[in-house]
Design a protein that fits this description.
about 325 residues; about 25% strand; binds 2-acetamido-2-deoxy-beta-D-glucopyranose
Length: about 325
């Protein structure tokens, strides 16, 4: 019984140390991270598509991406949404239903949509993984902004004279794990995906999630945005389970044991004083050596007392 207690204490302490090391590897990042609710601009690859009314087909009209004069791919802001008057923006950690109506589909954009829907060219967008630094450290090398790709898998069907676009999209975003998950955490983007839902839905009328589109029409996009606080997907029977970053975050006990040295130590302390010692008190009765003296004068007990601030004073108490 006592032997197994000692092993359990040792195992718990070891877990705490592993947790502490993991925390050390992650914590000293001086780079900025998004605060809950911070705005994240969406920018997309600029693609060539000339106005079909004023040009004859040329090889560059294949939805090819545009490079700038440094041969870098050129990203431009997502089209302006009529609702906000600004290009599409996401908000860090905020789960929402967002409408973004592109008020007027131009001829070039219409033809780009054809490419996107056929997947001849992807609707390639990206998000800055971190917010831009507000204070530039003086001598340091310039910080290169990192991005995560967000490909909008836009679904629909092509007709001779028009398109059907599946206008409702889910956007799933993962942020990097924190060692202490809690609601409204700040963090850094890890990855994301965006896709049209119900592309073969035959629902018509105002509830329709597909839109028949001709040049000059508005394109009413709607987005359901969900956030995951780790790169993992939610599981119920496995370890991670959550309801987004704004709500409750659950994780298994073992995960919490790993999260940090401090938490681990606290758990061990509570467990030792709350579970192990009372058991011994019950098991041994109160005659002779006191349980406290007995427990903490043993080899493992003494180590515990010294290393974990559990009060060597009580250990020395002899009645
Ligand atoms: C996208 O590229 C085209 C062709 O080079 C250019 O005319 C257009 O201005 C670019 N769009 C933006 C927003 O820079
Ligand atoms: C988005 O648009 C739909 C349909 O037009 C509307 O019912 C809904 O209230 C809008 N949602 C928001 C958040 O504006
Ligand atoms: C855009 O918004 C304005 C006012 O906010 C509204 O009058 C107009 O009808 C909207 N256009 C579209 C295509 O939704």
């Amino acid at each position: 019984m006592r032997q197994s207690d000692i092993w359990a204490v040792a195992a718990c302490l070891a877990l705490s140390l592993v947790g502490a090391n993991a925390a050390k590897e992650h914590s000293p990042i001086p780079l900025p991270s998004y605060h809950y609710g911070a705005k994240i601009p969406v920018s997309c690859l600029n693609r060539s598509m000339h106005d079909s009314l004023i040009h004859v087909s040329s090889p560059s009209d294949t939805g090819e991406h545009i490079e700038d004069d440094k041969n870098q791919l050129q990203y431009i802001p997502f089209p302006v949404c009529n609702e906000t008057g600004k290009p599409l923006e996401l908000q860090y950690g905020i789960e929402e239903e967002l409408n973004c109506t592109i008020p007027f589909i131009t001829d070039p954009f219409f033809h780009l949509l054809e490419f996107y829907i056929h997947n001849d060219a992807p609707l390639t967008c990206r998000l800055p993984a971190r917010p831009p630094p507000t204070i530039q450290t003086v001598p340091a090398e310039p910080i290169t902004q990192e991005y995560i790709p967000l490909i909008f898998a836009l679904a629909g069907t092509l007709q001779l004279s028009h398109l059907h676009v599946s206008t409702h999209l889910n956007i799933l975003l993962h942020s990097t794990p924190k060692h202490h998950l809690h609601p409204h955490d700040s963090g850094v983007l890890d990855s994301g995906a965006a896709y049209s839902t119900s592309p073969i839905s035959h629902v018509t009328g105002p509830a329709a999630l597909t839109k028949k589109l001709v040049i000059g029409d508005p394109l009413p996009l709607s987005f359901s945005i969900r956030w995951f606080p780790t790169p993992a997907l939610p599981t119920t029977n496995g370890k991670v389970e959550w309801a987004g970053m704004g709500g409750h975050v659950y994780a298994s006990t073992i995960f919490y044991c790993f999260v940090s040295f401090g938490a681990g130590a606290a758990v061990c302390t509570v467990w030792f004083w709350g579970v192990v010692l009372p058991k011994r008190v019950r098991g041994r009765g109160l005659g002779g050596a006191t349980p406290l003296g007995y427990g903490l004068n043993g080899a493992a007990g003494a180590k515990l007392g010294n290393g974990w601030g559990m009060g060597t004073g009580t250990g020395k108490r002899i009645d």
